[in-house]
Specification:
Largest sheet: 4 strands, mixed
CATH topology: TIM Barrel
CATH architecture: Alpha-Beta Barrel
Helix content: 40-55%
Oligomer: single chain
Number of strands: 10
Strand order of the largest sheet: 8-1-9-10
């Protein structure tokens, strides 16, 4: 039975009263709900949570290697190690690259992740993180995907818990949400992810949360998933969030098909529409509500104007500045660099107050 806009009002009332949004409700919002009404409900919830403030972080991305043995069908970035443009940065090279931006732009967060590179051992990561911590005090290391963490622990023959403890002692502060994609195995099989890797993502995040390590959550949409898969994904994250409260933010980001095997094999012919992007932002806000208060705009794949619209549709964090990012450009999409002043202007243009934060979402400056 197809629901009506009256049902969407009831879903909105559920959200406002703190009741959980069910699987059927989420599928309805994806498949039938009016996008403008979704935006009004989500925007209202966001304003209750954070008022007219929109946060951002002075961030830089460090893709320290592009060599990866996972070879996801949605990734245009990875190399096997045999190609001319394969690379792995030394610790000195990483430090030199950070130094270009750290003082000049007041960088507060370093997002560092690459590929699952079988030639790198645990000592590389421990020495890398401790060097960054020592040379750039105050820089929050937001590091490593769950895929990288899983491989490092297996290669070093230690548990994920012991690995995370070592990484934290050497400078790791938080863990990004990369590797989540869509949790259901039928989708992950087409994405060329190992069976059970979705649950592994949740297990690693739960281990981190149980240790007091905060993390981010993501969802990649716009490929081969169905609405029910996205519903399962959101509810799995919500369940874990209710247990520990360990997720700092959630970012739904749309798949970029350029130069990927999914595109070459005809699974995906075009990128998500603007409406799809806003729908995913709004539904995430409605589902997570105050349990996971920060929803990021994912402007990186959609541009500044869509970032502004995402704020109106329920997001309340811009994400971060961008310097020298390599993963998205591998798809053929030029993202360039985005400095702090441009974010401040973009947020002000829609009548909101820009707030700079640090890696742990503490306020640094209010503009």
């Amino acid at each position: 039975m197809i629901k009506t806009d009256q049902d969407l009002d009831e879903i909105g009332e559920k959200a406002r009263s703190g009741r959980e949004i069910g699987e059927d409700d989420i599928v309805y919002m994806y498949d039938y709900a009016d996008i403008n009404q979704l935006g009004r409900i989500a925007g209202s919830i966001a304003r209750e949570i954070s008022g007219n403030k929109v946060s951002f972080v002075s961030n830089m991305i460090m893709n320290y290697t592009n060599i990866c043995n996972v070879r996801c069908s949605f990734c245009a970035f990875y190399r096997t190690g045999k190609e001319n443009d394969s690379y792995t940065m030394t610790i000195d090279q990483v430090v030199s690259e950070i130094r270009k931006y750290y003082d000049a732009y007041g960088i507060k967060q370093l997002l560092i992740q690459g590929g699952v590179n079988p030639s790198l051992d645990l000592e590389y990561y421990l020495n890398l993180f401790s060097r960054i911590r020592d040379e750039f005090p105050g820089l929050g290391i937001h590091g490593l995907s769950t895929s990288e963490i899983s491989f490092i622990s297996k290669k070093a023959r230690i548990s994920v818990r012991d690995l995370l403890d070592l990484l934290r002692k050497n400078g790791l502060e938080t863990i990004p949400g990369a590797g989540a994609e869509i949790f259901d195995d039928d989708v992950r099989r087409i994405l060329n992810r190992p069976r059970g890797s979705g649950q592994e993502w949740l297990d690693i995040m739960e281990t981190a949360h149980s240790m007091g390590i905060r993390t981010s959550a993501t969802m990649m949409f716009g490929h081969v998933e169905a609405s029910i898969n996205k519903a399962h994904h959101l509810l799995s994250i919500l369940k874990l969030q209710k247990k520990y409260g360990g997720f700092l933010s959630f970012t739904p980001w749309n798949f970029e098909p350029g130069n990927t095997r999914l595109e070459r094999e005809g699974y995906v012919k075009q990128r998500s529409s603007s409406e799809d992007v806003l729908r995913n932002i709004a539904i995430a806000r409605i589902v997570f509500n105050k349990y996971l208060p920060v929803i990021q705009t994912s402007w990186l794949t959609n541009g500044i104007e869509m970032g502004q619209l995402a704020i109106i549709f329920g997001a309340n964090d811009w994400g971060g500045t961008i310097y020298n990012e390599k993963v998205i450009p591998a798809t053929g999409k030029d993202v360039g660099n985005l400095k702090k002043d441009l974010i401040i202007d973009a947020v002000r243009q829609i009548g909101m107050i820009p707030v700079e934060r640090d890696n742990l979402y503490h306020e640094v400056s209010v503009f």
